[in-house]
Amino acid sequence: MTTAEGRESDYKAGESISVPSEPVQVEAPGQVSVLIVPAGAGSGVTEIKMRRLETWSGPELGREINQRLNKVTGRVVEIQRALAQRSGREALRLIEELQANYPELSYLNFLKASAFVLMGERARARTAVEAGLVDFPEDVSGKALLRSLGSAR
Q: Are strands 34-36 and 24-26 parallel, antiparallel or unpaired?
């Protein structure tokens, strides 16, 4: 939090702060900044909820989404190239790096399964496909890959 005079204070998520008597800018990484301008006693402001950047719209959000999609798409192309060259270990390394940066991309589990198949690790491939099907239960390719891997042993 930065006051009008430039004084900064750090607070932890969920920590309560009293509403100040001077304007304050509240910032958090990955969050939209908030400028608090006190409305005086009885204003009714009791708490401030930070909103994730992704929940806002406008040109800045468009640029952020474009940058993230470009990073992910570029890395998926590298993964597909490694799979096409039958380099399961390299593909797996790239997938794990991407998953570390974007853990919400559960669809990557299908690519991970393909890497495990190339490495001859069918049980791990099956586990990866099953993880992908949790979020995408109707994925035709994922279901076909699961069938091709046979039953768990």
A: antiparallel
